[in-house]
Amino acid sequence: MLFALALVACDRNQLGPDCPDDVEVAALEAVGSVPVVTWTTSGDTEASVGWEVADGRSGEAPSASASDHRFLLYGVPPLTDFTWTITYDQDGETLTCSGDATNEGVSDPPSVDVTLFDEDLASPEKYWLAVMPGVPSKIFVMDREGTILWNVVLGDDQVSADIRFARNGDILYNYFAESHYKDAGSVVRIGLDGEIAAELKTPLAHHVFTEREDGTLAYLAIDLRSWDPFGDIVGDAVYETT
């Protein structure tokens, strides 16, 4: 994973005395412009990182215990000044450190128009997922105003049709070959850091899939069969896989 330090501007001279000496604010190049805060401690310590922008939008990365700390500030809009705050334990004391930075990265496209025709039918989640069709396809996460916060460009011959949050917080998306004569479907599990965790082949798949409560996947597939007296027919079948 590559870090593009230039995408986030942070003045270390403004950091307070409780900030770790090696704290850095960078951005993940692979997913557009998601800021990342990193630092190290001599042993495993509990820590968390929050962020806030001037218009009141804010968020917090889940707390974790480690010595090499790495927190994605998921949701910080691109081209925006923000304040980050880390809270961590050291020698039995809870310390707080804050700093200001600018998320200078920008997604492609930077935003999309969102029109809600019926607020009651809209998904209540804070962030929405979407697919931009084409070759290659783009998958992205946006806020309710349409600002794109996270995006990944798929491979040259990958056309996506469906995307959703996995039960563990990762993102699941599917893709197919550009040619309808090539059976090359897969469902991919990708982390918010842009790292692919798993890829599952889905023979004859098309359009949608879902993650079941037990973690298995079900997907819609082409069903080819012969049916007397009609001959060869094409329909749909639901396949389940692990």
Overview of the molecule:
- 0% of the residues lie in helices and 56% in strands.
- The chain has 242 residues and is mainly beta.
- Strands 1, 2, 3, 4, 5 and 6 form a six-stranded antiparallel β-sheet that branches. Strands 10, 11, 12, 13 and 14 form a five-stranded antiparallel β-sheet that branches. The protein has a three-stranded antiparallel β-sheet with strand order 7-8-9, with no helix packed on it.
- Strand 8 and strand 9 (148-153) form a beta hairpin.
- Residues 1-7 have low confidence and may be disordered.
Task: Give structural attributes.
mainly beta, single chain, six-stranded antiparallel beta sheet, elongated, 17 strands, disordered N terminus, 242 residues, five-stranded antiparallel beta sheet
Mean pLDDT: 82
Class from secondary-structure proportions = mainly beta
C-alpha end-to-end distance:
27 Å
Helix content: under 10%
Number of helices: 0
What would a concise description of this structure say?
The protein is mainly beta and 242 residues long. The protein has strands at 8-10, 24-28, 34-53, 58-72, 80-90, 93-103, 127-132, 138-143, 148-153, 158-159, 163-165, 171-177, 186-190, 196-201, 205-211, 217-227, 231-241.
